Amino acid sequence: MTSIIAFWLIALMLSAYTLLDGYDLGAAAIAPLLARARAERSAIVESIGPFWSGNEVWLVAAGGTLFALFPQAYAVTFSGFYLPFIVVLWLLMFRGIAIELREHLPGAMWMDFWDVAFSLSSALLILLFGVALGNLVHGLPLDRSGYFLGTFSSLLNPYALLVGALAVAGLVQHGLAYVGDNVAGALGDRALRYIGRLWWFVLLAYLGLSAATIGALRGPVPIAPLAVAASAVALASLAALRAFAARRRSGPAFLASSAFLAGLLAAAAATMYPYLIRPYRDTPGGLTIFQASPPAMTVAISLVVALAGLAAVIAYSSFVRKRMSAKVVVREETV
Amino acid sequence: MDVVLADRLQFSFTMMFHYLFPIGTMGIAPFIVWYNYRALATGEQKNSDAARFWTKIFALNFAVGVVTGIPMEFQFGTNWALFSAQTGAVVGQPLMIEGVYAFFLESVFLGVLLYGRERVSPRLYLASAVAVWLGSWLSGYLIVVTDAWMQHPVGYAIGPAGRIELQSLAAVLFSPFAGWQYAHVITGAVVAGGFVVAGIGAYYLLAKRDAEFGRTFVRDGVIVALVSSALVIFPTGDRNGADVTAYQPVKLAAMEGLFQSSRGAPLAIIGMPDVAAHNLIDPVFVPDLLSFLAYGNFRAGVDGLTSYATALWPPVELTYYAYHVMVGLGTLFIAIAAGAALLLWRRRLFETPLALWALLLAMPFPYIASEAGWVVAEVGRQPWIVYGLMKTQAAASPNVVSGETIFTLIGFAGMYFLLGVLFLLLTLREIAIGPGPQPQNPPAAQPAPAR
After folding, report:
1. Which of residues 202-241 of A touch B (CB under 8 A)?
2. Per-residue pLDDT, A219
3. Distance (Å, rounded) from C-alpha B167 to C-alpha B170?
4. Cα B52 vs. chain centroid, distance in angstroms?
5. Chain A contacts in chain B segment 285-304 (CB below 8 A)
6. What ipTM was reported for this prediction?
7. What is the CA radius of gyration of chain B?
8. Interchain pair A75, B82: CB under 8 A
9. B126, B40 contact by CB (below 8 A)
């Protein structure tokens, strides 16, 4: 029982990460295409500047929780995917440096360089996260102790790339909704308008992925009703997003986009359950939450500590967000 | 190359580079709180300018600290899979708590400090500074707790599969080894903070600019440096040393370069260890002092390295030198800070260029002392990764080869070189701009591009 709660706690933390860091990753990825001048890019950076670092902590905290609650899975995945994990790490570093250092020198070349670096590393990160999720849902070739047997290039299979494409489109859409909701004037309006164009691509990728998933999965999914319900929520939210964006209702549009992503992630988690690492097709191996689980007492203590802490985090970060939430305006820059 | 050696090189390189920046954030955070508090209490512009200046320096340290910190957590899994799988149920706990309790606090409220001066009330702004300070110090505590468990494992049980299980979270979080080690680590960071603030103040006075800020920084920095330099030696260093004496006597022997057991063991002030010959070359000894420092008794017996199997010795030279560098520098800090404080008291410090130069040039050394202290702690722990429980040699990832680790080590080296250059460039630039009131349009700005 405790391992089931632990599984969902980690799924929840990773979802929080996707919804929160997702908007700043997405906004960063689309910034060069969305912004028409450096001042507009600065406004986008300013809208995510106070929050991106706190958003990224969700990933670090989820990693720590996985380490504490499923150490076996932590060890097997991180060392099994050595190279891709280190590449993700370098991209995270590059991106953090780009947004933080951009503001420290008021020079046009300096800012342009870091804007491009920020955008490219964010886009690549989304793609890699999507590919990783795709492989986890689809299953991996594993040996008996759960170590990954393939290579980096074998991770770039069509199914995983399709999830990567949906991730890029979905998070860019999320970023556009965020910019629409948090930047005033023409830039915010343009962001909402862009959603209308991107939307068809997201829908197509979503439908393609649903078909591919049904085709790829052999054997019963233990909690299929949840997967189906979550997919339905995702589809309904996607429809609502289009309607809200078209009416320029930015707040509800951002919520609808969040619900769309949450639905997708819940469906992915339900498909993976009870595996932490799913073996490819019907090959042996794989690590379920029951095999990998530590003693119930450990999980119980960790859960209480983590949940109490997260409740406080949610309370003070929404308080701060409320106090800090002035719509960003595009300013003529002195650079 | 041996894969474990490659993993160790990568971990120590990334760790030692990373730690430079937490020293900065943990050492500067109290000053930001102080200047913000003074700004709120006095309403003087000078204090909020000082707070803003140090917040900028803090932010640069924080940015590099965060991006170089994430690889540390990753590396437990990527390079040390057997360690993680075996001990994660214990070691993962403080790391999870750090993420949930410390990182969020620091990140969320630093956002307020950097972007919120016009958006939130002065009181909330001050509270945010306090939250950032708490977050950085709490984060330090949880890292020390993790390390303390590796130095002196407590609160665990060996599970059915031979895996280490958590028995008492409280025992791990309040480990007897963690308390003094943390106090020692954090006062070490405050020494660095004090010397950085004093050193930059001294620079402004010597450069004959921003004199009012220069005097404030020198005064505040010197007072903090003096108090913390004293505390870092006694009681924190002394008590942390007592824990090492009690739990890791072989590390103590390596630190001191004591090869033969003896009653009334001498303290080696200098000397170069000859490990093969089991003695120190050109030593200068203080008789009986080591026995006194370790056990409070000049005639107490202290075990030398030769009373342990060679296989259980840590690398002697590195442990010995790191310890002597740390202690030597610690003594120097007291001397510089006490001299400067004396001049401050006699109201002559601001007009004594020699003392100001000493403060300016002292800035890097608390960093070196802190790094050296960690080398003593971690190299001295070898050959164990978890003291008495698990050998470092048995902890690396079984499915990662040294070719992969060397590739990523080269990548880290390149990335960190770039980071180091950018950090220095931008920090020096902030110092050059200075804490004084900024004009609305920076003079360096170019005309707006035509759109």
Report:
1. none
2. 63
3. 9
4. 24
5. none
6. 0.88
7. 23
8. yes
9. yes
- How would residue A301 be classed by pLDDT, with cut points 50, 70 and 90? confident
Q: How far is B428 from chain A (nearest CA, A)?
A: 11
Read off the tokens for A165.
Answer: 């494409």
Nearest CA among B69, B235, B35 for reference residue B139: B69
Q: With a cut of 70, say whether residue B194 has pLDDT above it.
A: yes
A152 and chain B in contact, CB less than 8 A: no
Mean pLDDT over the full length of chain A = 87
Report the candidate in B298, B176, B289 with the shortest Cα–Cα distance to residue B240.
B176
Beta strands in B295-346 (DSSP E): 301-302
Angstrom distance (rounded) from CA A28 to CA A213: 29
Distance CA B60, CA B422 (A): 10
pLDDT digits (tens, 9 = 90+) for B56-82: 999 999 999 989 998 998 899 999 999
**Residues near A197 by Cβ (< 8 Å), separated by ≥ 6?**
none
Report percent pLDDT > 90 for chain B.
81
Q: Scan residues 197-216 of B and list those with Cβ closer than 8 Å to A.
A: none
Whether the pTM exceeds 0.90: the reply is: yes
Q: Where are the alpha helices (DSSP H) in B207-271?
A: 211-231, 238-247, 249-256
- Residue B386: strand, helix, or coil: strand
Band of pLDDT at residue B439, cut at 50, 70 and 90: low
The answer to whether residues A16 and A79 touch, using CB atoms and an 8 Å cutoff, is: no
Q: Which residues of B touch A66 (CB under 8 A)?
A: 92
Reported as a single tens digit per residue, the pLDDT across B89-100 is: 899 999 999 999
CA distances from B39 to A323, B30, B48, B52 (A): 21, 14, 5, 11
- The first and second tokens of residue B230, run together, are 């004293």
Half-sphere exposure of B298 (CA within 13 A, CB side): 4
| Coil, strand or helix at A301 | helix
Question: Which of B17, B25, B107, B130 has the highest number of chain A CBs within 10 A, making it the mutation to test binding with A?
Answer: B107
Q: Residue B440 above 60 pLDDT? A: no
Under the banding of pLDDT at 50, 70 and 90, the label for residue B443 is very low
Question: How far is the alpha carbon of B103 from chain A, nearest alpha carbon, in Å?
Answer: 6
**Contact between chains at B92 and A69 (C-beta distance less than 8 A):** yes
Task: Flag whether residue A51 sits within 8 Å of chain B, measured between CB atoms.
Answer: yes
Mean pLDDT of A121-137: 92
Q: What's the CA gap between B241 and B234, in Å, rounded? A: 10
Give residues with Cβ within 8 angstroms of A140, minimum separation 6: A148, A149, A150, A277, A278, A279, A280
- Which of these, A217, A201, A206, A204, lies nearest to A136 by C-alpha position? A217
**Residue A11, token pair as written in the block:** 């799924």
Residue A220: pLDDT band (50, 70, 90) is low
Distances (CA, A) of B411 to A75, A89, A306, B14: 22, 11, 34, 11
Q: State pLDDT tens for residues A33-84.
A: 998 888 889 899 989 988 888 899 999 999 999 998 888 888 888 888 888 8
